[in-house]
Amino acid sequence: MPQMNMIDAIRDAMDVKMAEDDNVVVFGEDVGYFGGVFRCTHGLQEKYGTSRVFDSPINESGIVGTAIGMAAYGLRPCVEIQFADYIYPAYDQIVSEAARLRYRSAAEFTAPLVVRTPCGGGIFGGQTHSQSPESLFTHISGVKTVIVSNPYDAKGLLISAIEDDDPVIFFEPKRLYNGPFDGHHDRPAKNWSTHPMGDVPEGRYTVPIGKASVVSEGADVTILTYGTMVYVAEAAKEETGVDAEIIDLRSLLPLDIDTIVASVKKTGRCMVLHEATLTSGFGAELAAQVQERCFYHLEVPIERVTGWDTPYPHAQEWDYFPGPARVGAALKSMMEAV
Fold first, then answer.
1. Which residues are catalytic?
2. Domain count within the chain
């Protein structure tokens, strides 16, 4: 089985679908000749031509608006927004057009499109290249929201997203492109070649949208997380010795509530962990869902560990980033609470 990093896996997913289906097209800023700022589309234009892989103007609303029109006419566009921080100009197109097309046309039209975008910090990108805006899209009926954490899932989920008949916002934590990251920025970087999730099958396979993954079983506390924080949670578990069950949600909408409830009922404790800011972050929705369904099983209040309510700093990046020390302290506090 070939070894891939997440960049390779994402490119391979698009390659597989473009080879299978002539209706799949790829475009965005610098994705054609240059192959994308993170090289996720490298080589696709040379293979499939400039009519199926092409560069767009620097206009995010135009990228998504064009993709919606293409999707309504039967194509399956997979477009790239260069950084999640730049997706806001396209928000109206996503909310008012893509998400509503099936509903407002009584299913006469659909919007089978994917919006790929790198998200999150850990690369000293500062306030305009480090944001995690996933909660903004989980509030919108008609849009699916996916965040990947490893190469195997990235390929399988992207193929599922391209094949889906409704719009999918596909977040790719840029700190994970080349290897898993546990939050210890002062240690040597790791790559996917030594990680089991770097084993990516050739050809087509899918990972279902809406199904979480239990990446580490445990009995003391459930950690609900996604993206880069999966590896931070694993590091905190190892360093504290707390027997945590770590769930990688993978899909925020639809949400695998059954897996969440089964785990929290087993452990009696729940931590919600994400890199995005605290207030109105997706962790608030997770906490509400757990409270409604698991109230009589909870032994301590639900804990949220997140980024701070401030623009993502540059010089103080590691004070903002929810690292293993902060997660570990919260785990110990939960275990000590009566």
1. 129
2. 2
